[in-house]
Give the backbone structure.
Amino acid sequence: MEKPEWFDWASDERKTGEWLRSNHPEWFAQVCQILFDYDPMMISLVSEPEGYAPEVGSIMRSLPQCMSVDDVQQLVFNVFTQWFTPEFAGGRGQYAEVAAAIWENWKQQQREE
């Protein structure tokens, strides 16, 4: 059976996420908790914060390129669209609150380094 075309991408993203988790465990856990608390897709898909680990790895990898909360909103929306589907991810607007929380968390991480 042939691998689906997204398989290698997802595998690479998971490896990146595992590296980020092992190097920044507290921050990784905080971003998982933010996604869990805000549940941007509004479906209670995961039953614990760690359920968002794949998406968190993708978000954390690209956060350094974000210059504003709007950039973070676009990033989080793009990540959920990639990990799920555009139909399932919903509209960009529903990621505003979670983006604001991640942006504040990211700025806090910068002050602590």
About this structure: The chain has a mean pLDDT of 90. The first helix runs from residue 7 to 23. The CA atoms of residues 42 and 83 lie 15 Å apart.
